[in-house]
């Protein structure tokens, strides 16, 4: 059999980097796409130090020239992992920051996917995986911009999976919960880039933090590799699995929610955003208990 080639976008940090190295350590042929040339150098150096073979390429998914160059690569498995998180109330977030959220998390990945999807359809084989989030299945206060981009990605992935099935191209999504990669905490620091009048904001963002205890990201890396290599064949992959009942419960609650309920009361997750310390992790020994509460 011809060795499959895996393209991982957003491989400079976090899940993407861990997945790229994990696949390479298994002897897979990996192209690690990173946003900047400085990340290319850093990742190549790290790969050399770890003695793993990874092809590192500059691939900013929002850059048309980078996408054009990427389409020249013969890719069998595409992981759309590149993303950013823009937190803040939908009443406060400036237009350019909201648009940037969708450019990076939605338009860039979908536009990159288009020609890869056609190439895979022509070959009658291939796999496209989207790194979504539990935030694409349930929406939290102060994370509407990020959640909105992931809800959109969920719809696009579902449509694409149905469109490509006749061409034998597989599509899947991965939905990580709260994991400590720095990504979630940066979401609640994004307001520092806003060019607006702080006095007009509904919320004081200096007082807010990501409202969940965060887990070891290694779980997501392991599960993602299973999805990419075919060890797991589920379309939707929530990690940790302990979050599945909570996600389903949150989705069901909307069918019974009245639009005039709890008016005048602060939402419990807004309050937790105020109370919690940034980058909080579960206390050792009660991780499973916290997962069950999630």
Protein traits:
alpha/beta; 12% strand; 294 residues; 44% helix; 7-stranded parallel beta sheet; globular
Helix content: 40-55%
Query: What is the general shape?
Result: globular
Radius of gyration computed on alpha carbons:
19 Å
Number of DSSP E strands: 7
Describe this structure in words.
- This protein has 294 residues and is of the alpha/beta class.
- It is built from ten helices and seven strands.
- It has helices at residues 14-25, 37-50, 64-70, 95-123, 144-164, 183-187, 218-229, 244-256, 268-275, 287-293; strands at 5-8, 29-34, 55-58, 77-80, 127-131, 170-176, 236-239.
- Strands 3-2-1-4-5-6-7 form a seven-stranded parallel sheet, sandwiched between helices.
- α4 links the parallel β4 and β5 (127-131).
- α1 crosses α7 (218-229) and α4 packs parallel to α5 (144-164).
- The chain is globular, with a radius of gyration of 19 Å.
């Amino acid at each position: 059999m011809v060795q499959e080639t895996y393209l991982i976008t957003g491989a400079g940090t976090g899940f993407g980097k861990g997945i790229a190295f994990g696949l390479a350590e298994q002897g897979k042929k990996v192209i690690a796409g990173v946003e900047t040339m400085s990340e290319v150098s850093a990742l190549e150096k790290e790969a050399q130090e770890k003695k793993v073979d990874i092809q590192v390429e500059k691939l900013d998914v929002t850059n048309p020239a980078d996408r054009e160059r990427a389409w020249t690569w013969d890719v069998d498995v595409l992981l759309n992992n590149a993303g950013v998180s823009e937190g803040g109330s939908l009443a406060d977030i400036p237009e350019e920051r909201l648009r940037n959220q969708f450019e990076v998390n939605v338009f860039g990945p979908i536009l990159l996917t288009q020609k890869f999807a056609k190439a895979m359809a022509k070959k009658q084989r291939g796999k496209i995986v989207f790194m979504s989030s539990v935030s694409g299945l349930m929406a939290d206060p102060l994370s509407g911009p990020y959640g909105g981009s992931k809800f959109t990605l969920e719809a696009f992935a579902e449509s694409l999976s149905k469109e490509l099935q006749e061409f034998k191209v597989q599509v899947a999504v991965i939905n990580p919960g709260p994991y400590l990669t720095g990504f979630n905490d940066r979401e609640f620091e994004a307001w520092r880039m806003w060019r607006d009048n702080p006095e007009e904001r509904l919320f004081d963002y200096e007082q807010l933090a990501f409202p969940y205890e965060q887990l070891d990201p290694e779980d997501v890396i392991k599960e993602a590799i299973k999805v990419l290599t075919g060890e797991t064949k589920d379309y939707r992959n929530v990690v940790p699995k302990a979050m599945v009942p909570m996600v389903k419960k949150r989705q069901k609650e909307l069918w019974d929610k009245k639009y005039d309920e709890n008016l005048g009361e602060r939402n419990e997750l807004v309050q937790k955003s105020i109370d919690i310390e940034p980058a909080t992790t579960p206390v050792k020994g009660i991780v499973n208990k916290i997962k069950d509460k999630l």
